[in-house]
Structure formats: C-alpha cells, structure tokens
Write a structure and sequence with these properties.
Low-confidence stretches: none
Oligomer: single chain
Order of helices and strands: EEEHEEHEHHHEHEHEEHH
Bound molecules: adenosine-5'-diphosphate, magnesium ion
Helix content: 25-40%
Number of helices: 9
Shape: globular
Structural class: alpha/beta
Strand order of the largest sheet: 6-7-8-3-9-10
Number of strands: 10
CATH class of the largest domain: Alpha Beta
Distance between the termini: 40 Å
Mean pLDDT: 92
C-alpha cells in the first residue's frame, strides 16, 4: 500500500480545468516532486492533497483511508503536515517560542495547565533537536521577524516537522529566494528526507531544487501529467525537454 494514493483527481474552477485526471502514488519514505511552469496547476493540486480544495472528480487515499471529503484539520490529525506559511508564524516571538507551539501539540501538552518538570524538559529537548536539525541553533533566541528569508523558511519547515508528520507537504519552498538560500533550503529538505526518513511531496517550479532531491518526479503542464519518472528518466524525456526543459535552458 502506498502512503498516498491520488486517483484521477480533477479540479474545475467554473469553465477552467486547473487539474485534469491526475493519478499518482507516493510510497513510504519517498520524496516525490511535482514540477511544472507557472499556471500548470501545482498549487491547486497541492491544495487538494492538503484538503483546502475538494476535488471535482477523483479520490485521495492517505494511509489506507479515503480522505477525499476530510477537512485540512482532520488530515493534519492523521499525520499530514504542510509548511506553516510565514503569516502563521509569530514574527515577534523567538524561533524557540514558535517551535514550542507544534512541539507541545505533538506531545499532547498544548492545552494542559500543569506540566511536570519532566514534561517541560522533554519539550525543551525536542525543541533543541529541531533547532539543530534545522540549522537554527544560533538563531534560537532571535525573533523570527529579524531572520533572513532562508532562516524564516527553515523555521516554517521545522514547525511542520515538529508535528512528526507521516507526510510533509511543501509548496515552492524556495520561492523568492536567491541562489545561496535556495541551496541551503534544498540541503535541509534532503536531510529531512534522507536522515529523518520523512515522506515528502514537494511542489516546485525551480528545476535546480528538485533534480538532486527527488526520488520520482511528476511533470504537470496545463493541469495534466506530461510525464512521470525518476530524475534521470525525466531529464532524458523528449516530451519534457520539448515542453519545459528546453525553455529553461534557453532562458538560463
Ligand atoms: N481559486 C481559484 N479560482 C479560479 N481559478 C484558479 C484558482 N486557483 C487557481 N486558478 C487557476 O488555475 C490554474 C492553475 O493555477 P495554480 O494551481 O496556481 O498553478 P501553479 O501553482 O502551477 O502556478 C491557473 O490558470 C489559475 O489561474
Ligand atoms: Mg503555485
């Protein structure tokens, strides 16, 4: 059984078909990248997985359960986490205090009035672990609002990781970043995948980010699957080269 099974999903917005009959499976431990030019339907597809949009057609099965009609919150409960967007991060709080929120949720402590000293220590230990993993230790006590764009993104990603998700969803994690920050974000994602064994669906239009990261790639154009395969297969695909890689190279 695949962890995530997406079966023939479509999303119509009035007359516009933003995603059309897309099928893909994500295996436990896989990093699956969905790529495509702007307007290809990537974010729409992402929103159907996380539950923000209900597909017009098709079915989504997560961890053996049909989640097609479930709310985003119910999917989070089942172990699906998407990146916190920076708007959901408290800019006036430190990185450590932001991380404490999802850590306490994951430990079932969020709404408890009393905690044992042991529980508090456990929380702080877990925060330290996440800071280390996210390369944020040196910035732990700074307010998120003062951090570089890249470190803010790392904070968002680590807040999602703090939930101990079965599946981590990332929508264009390198959007708006320069080359160096793009590279360090890619390194963080690689570490989460290879060392923490997280299953990840990554939606991205920047080719540089995904070719060295993904186990498998799905290429979307105009809402439909153009091709699917390993990075080597996609790099060698005539269809993809014609529709997409060719453009990139010319503009590079
Ligand atoms: N909520 C919406 N209502 C109407 N049209 C939408 C909506 N969201 C996206 N679209 C349209 O669907 C198409 C795919 O958009 P999107 O999924 O954002 O693509 P991508 O993320 O690949 O750039 C675009 O033509 C976009 O204008
Ligand atoms: Mg998008």
């Amino acid at each position: 059984m695949s962890l995530l099974e997406i079966q023939n999903v479509s999303q119509h917005f009035g007359e516009l078909v933003a995603v059309k009959d897309v099928t893909l499976n994500v295996e436990q431990g896989e990093l699956h990248a969905v790529i495509g030019p702007n307007g290809a339907g990537k974010t729409t597809f992402f929103n159907m997985i996380s539950g923000f949009y209900k597909p017009t057609h098709g079915r989504i099965v997560f961890n053996g359960q049909d989640v097609t009609a479930l709310t985003p919150e119910a999917r989070v409960q089942m172990g699906m986490a998407r990146t916190f967007q920076i708007t959901e991060v408290f800019r006036e709080l430190t990185v450590r205090d932001n991380l404490r929120i999802p850590v306490e949720v994951a430990q079932g402590l969020r709404l408890r009035l009393y905690r044992t000293r042991q529980q508090t220590e456990q929380t702080e230990r877990r925060i330290d672990e996440l800071l280390e993993l996210g390369g944020l230790t040196d910035n732990a006590d700074r307010n998120v609002g003062e951090l570089s764009h890249g470190d803010q993104r790392s904070t968002e990603i680590m807040m999602a990781v703090a939930m101990k998700p079965k599946l981590l969803l990332l929508d264009e994690p390198a959007a708006g970043m320069g080359t160096r920050e793009t590279y360090s974000t890619a390194l963080l994602i690689r570490k989460l995948h290879r060392k923490q064994k997280l299953t990840i669906v990554l939606v991205e239009h920047d080719m540089r980010v995904i070719f060295n990261l993904a186990d498998r790639i799905t290429v979307l154009t105009e809402g439909e699957i153009l091709d699917q395969g390993t990075p080597d297969e996609i790099a060698a695909s005539e269809k993809v080269r014609t529709a997409y890689l060719g453009d990139e190279r010319e503009s590079a």
